[in-house]
């Protein structure tokens, strides 16, 4: 066989291989397109749920604003009346009207008359004090209600803006879905059915499962500081490192998984992993696969104390391999507190830092002297 024949044979061999691979490649592309369509369908469904939540919030804010406006009218009326009474009291003292009343005390002829006059003077002083206090209270109430109204108005504007943004996002995604369905006329009905089934599965099983995990995790995180302050086996194994008034609590992801599973058996199907600057939880239950990825950060409590704590930020949530939209992530983060508060167990401890490494979580603490 000469070189030309070898070249022709090789060419046909390559062509045969490519022909064999072509159906698989086309199938893979089709599967990827279908998955992209299902992902968009799930995102559309969740954005639609967010729009419903925003609409409810807008109604509540509008009701709050109407109530605040009514309270302002009432407070302004009360403030006006209190101001008139307070002005009369101040004017009486300024003009010396109250001084003449005190001279009665020195002009009485008997002790019983003196007691009567003194009671009368105390009653006047008490009424004067009440008039001035009513003015102060009315003014403070008016100021407070006006502040509430301004905050409600700002929240309403932000809510409307968020609503419009999500509506635009929804419309754009819906347009993309319609275009993809139009390109797949033969499979359009099947794909639409698959989208409905995925959304139904998420609503019936996905949401309850995620809520179950988040509720259990929120409860367990409230008890996590026990490991910091207890004298249990973990501390004996060197999890709490002391250096003067500074402490470092260290825990591996295996220890966290053991702790959570002892606290709640629902964590038997969920496994946590620590990575540099991130933490993930993944598992499967009842045919539903879940994945949560997040990170810890330092934050200040908003209870007026401004005490530091460790806040958990959700970066990503996946349901059966499909990424949930940011609106869903934000709703779960808002609904469940997964922060760590060591000071709730021991008030003398204060968090100063947090660090995530491969397989290990470190929490820096100090004595709050």
Question: What's the number of domains?
Answer: 2
Mean pLDDT: 75
- Helical segment count: 8
| Biggest sheet overview | 5 strands, antiparallel
Roughly how many Å is the radius of gyration? Answer: 35 Å
Overview of the structural elements:
Strand 3 (270-275) and strand 4 form a beta hairpin. The chain folds into 2 domains: 23-187, Orthogonal Bundle (Helix Hairpins); 196-367, no CATH class. The protein is an alpha+beta fold. It has helices spanning 3-95, 97-103, 111-183, 188-223, 226-229, 233-236, 253-263, 326-335, and strands spanning 240-243, 246-252, 270-275, 278-285, 288-300, 308-319, 322-323, 349-357, 360-367. Mean pLDDT is 75; it is low at 2-29 and 231-237. Strands 3-4-5-6-7 form a 5-stranded antiparallel β-sheet. A 4-stranded antiparallel β-sheet has the order 1-2-9-8. Helix 1 packs antiparallel against helix 3 (111-183) and helix 1 (3-95) crosses helix 4 (188-223). This is N-terminal domain of peptidoglycan hydrolase CwlO-containing protein. Residues 51-85, 142-201 form a coiled coil. Keywords: Coiled coil.
């Amino acid at each position: 066989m000469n070189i030309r024949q070898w070249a022709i044979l090789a060419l046909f061999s390559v062509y045969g291989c490519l022909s064999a691979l072509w159906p698989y490649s086309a199938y893979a592309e089709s599967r990827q397109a279908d998955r992209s369509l299902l992902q968009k369908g799930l995102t559309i469904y969740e954005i639609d749920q967010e729009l419903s939540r925003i609409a409810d919030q807008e109604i509540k804010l509008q009701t709050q604003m109407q109530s605040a406006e009514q309270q302002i009218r009432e407070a302004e009326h009360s403030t006006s009346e209190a101001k008139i009474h307070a002005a009369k009291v101040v004017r009486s003292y300024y003009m010396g009207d109250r001084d003449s009343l005190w001279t009665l005390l020195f002009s009485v002829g008997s002790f019983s008359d003196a007691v009567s006059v003194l009671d009368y003077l105390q009653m006047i002083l008490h009424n004067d004090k009440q008039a001035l206090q009513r003015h102060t209270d009315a003014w403070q109430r008016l100021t407070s209600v006006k502040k509430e109204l301004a905050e409600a108005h700002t929240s309403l504007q932000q809510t409307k803006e968020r609503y419009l943004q999500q509506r635009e996002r929804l419309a754009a995604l819906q347009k993309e879905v319609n275009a993809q369905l139009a390109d797949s006329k033969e499979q359009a009905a099947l794909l639409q059915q698959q989208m409905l089934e995925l959304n139904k599965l998420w609503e019936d099983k996905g949401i309850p499962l995620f809520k179950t995990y988040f509720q259990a995790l929120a409860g367990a995180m409230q008890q996590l500081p026990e490991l910091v302050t207890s004298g249990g086996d973990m501390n004996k194994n060197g999890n709490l490192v002391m250096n003067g008034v500074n402490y470092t609590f260290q825990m591996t992801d295996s220890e966290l998984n053991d702790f959570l599973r002892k606290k709640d058996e629902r964590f038997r199907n969920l496994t946590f992993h620590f990575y540099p600057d991130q933490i993930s939880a993944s598992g499967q239950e009842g045919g539903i696969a879940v994945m949560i990825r997040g990170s810890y950060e330092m934050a200040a409590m908003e209870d007026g104390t401004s005490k530091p704590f460790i806040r958990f930020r959700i970066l990503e949530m996946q349901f059966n391999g499909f990424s949930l939209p940011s609106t869903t992530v934000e709703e779960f983060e808002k609904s469940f507190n997964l922060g760590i508060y060591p000071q709730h167990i021991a008030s003398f401890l204060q968090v100063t830092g947090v660090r995530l490494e491969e397989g290990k979580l470190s929490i820096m603490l100090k004595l709050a002297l």
